[in-house]
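Self-study notes.
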Amino acid sequence: MVVKERAEAKAQQRRRGPFTPIAEILASRFPDLRKKLKIADMDDNPIDFLEKVVASAIFISAGLIVVAYLFMLGGLESALKGNIPMFILMVVAPIIVIPVVIFSYLMLYPEAGMIRRQKEMDYEIVFAGRHIVIALKSGMPLFDTFVGASSGYGAVSREFAKIVDQVVLGVPVTQAIRDTVQYNPSKYFTRILMQIANSLGSGADVGGSLESVLDQISKEQMISLKEYSQKLTPIVMFYMVFGIIVPTLGVVLMTVIFSAMGGRSLPPWMLAIVFLVITIIQVLFLGFIETSRPKYLI
């Protein structure tokens, strides 16, 4: 581990980029970023990742700021003629708000990777566990069961392959298990492997104890599926209200109000903002529905 960290430090010194000083300053503000990157199975170290985030945030923010000024062009001209404080606010707000929002959004990428990896592992964890139970009850050694489970079960197989590689290099099985679960986002996978490690340490029957854990995991997954089906109805209702009905009636109401105030129509920049807000709301609702849906192969 020490040798690897020194190699990463030397590599970082060799390829210092224009955003490296900023990344080094930000790295101290995110002390848990290294662990999140490992759990998300990302190869970048914190400095490299922050460099990419800073560079992406600058370029994306520059484009969005230009677009925001184009949408607010009419409002900027009106504010410049009669309301200087509003003009200053409209000029400064995008420069401050947009980069902060973009940077915060990009910093969620490791957490999104953790969630994606967790779902990939939870999808086939029960079948992989049953494969191990059947192999153990048939008299196969534990290491051979890990070798058998290291293919055919997607992300779960990749984790078992890591254990197999460590054992081949001479690491004890229990230590290889604990090293693997240390940076694993799946609570089900962690529970299975820790049950195996505890059974090995106590001398208990690994197959019998693992079978009971798998039965419990299967019941928990069934419960989560039922809970999702119960949550889906209110989620769809909120989506219909806040994503379709309220924005539509709001635009109609604003049009009526502006028409009553001297026959004016809605400014184009305001319609663009309303359209952007509606789009964001609908994307957020659809994304929430998709991400909250449990995916299990039971």
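Second protein, same conventions, sequence then structure:
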Amino acid sequence: MATSLSAYLDVGDYLRAATNQETASLLGLNTTLAAGVVAGALTLSVTSSVGWAAGPVWLLDGPWAERAQVTGAPDGATLSLAAPGAAFAHGTGVSVSQAGTAGALAETILRASGWIENYCRQGAPGDRALFALPRTERWRLPGPRAWLEPDGALAVRVGHFPVQAVTALSVETSPGAALALDVTQIELASDGRLIELPPAALSPGGALYPPPGLSRGGRGWLSVSYTGGPVTPDATPYDLRQACVWVVSDLLAQRRNPTGAASVRMGSFELQARPRTDPSGDSLLMIQAKAALQSYRVEW
């Protein structure tokens, strides 16, 4: 199965941010899709193929960003891809770009997006994406993610917040003995981080509470299917986009300061890469990015 990448910006977004970073050497082909493509497509219809080269091409499309391989450009409006072609379907206007002579801006954006996900720590390794996507998780009960409150309510702290919708919730107290719960009775806290189910919902049909095998001291496993995450795939919030701009700029700025020195002086040119009083060693760009990401970050 193909693995998608996350992109909280595309090439056009970064160029419009007017960061004063040099980007010409990081772009060869820089265009967009002129028409949508389906998964497995071996050709891309683009607005221009100027600057194309045989080699990697990046399609930055939110949660479905990917890298493919260009083999040719039969005309000014089409790119040919090596099999297996595009891994995902993409719509008109998606950013399509290739590397320049000194690197690839699209790849730098993907690295910055990956850094943001690891910094925010939503989900678990393998699924740190901040996009609101359908997910299924399984947690030990009781545990830090799922537990019974003293009044008998079931509480679940899922990996991605805010929770947009819950489609299934079940508790397994022994192998093969699963109790499906009524998701229409769930309560969501205002911040969307906690799913709660009242005691009455754990006693379907008037059965005695708690169900056999389920207790605060017993062992169980909870499975939840839900859509969660702060970012609608086609509408990344401006604060998150700006944080990504700052992280990309920090990565690109390392070209001027590859050693990460606090101060670089060359003749009349002087660069101070970070505040001398900051013990973290972060640049001003990273300090601003981390501040912007606080509302998306898991602190425990």
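Instructor comment on the second fold: The mean pLDDT is 88.
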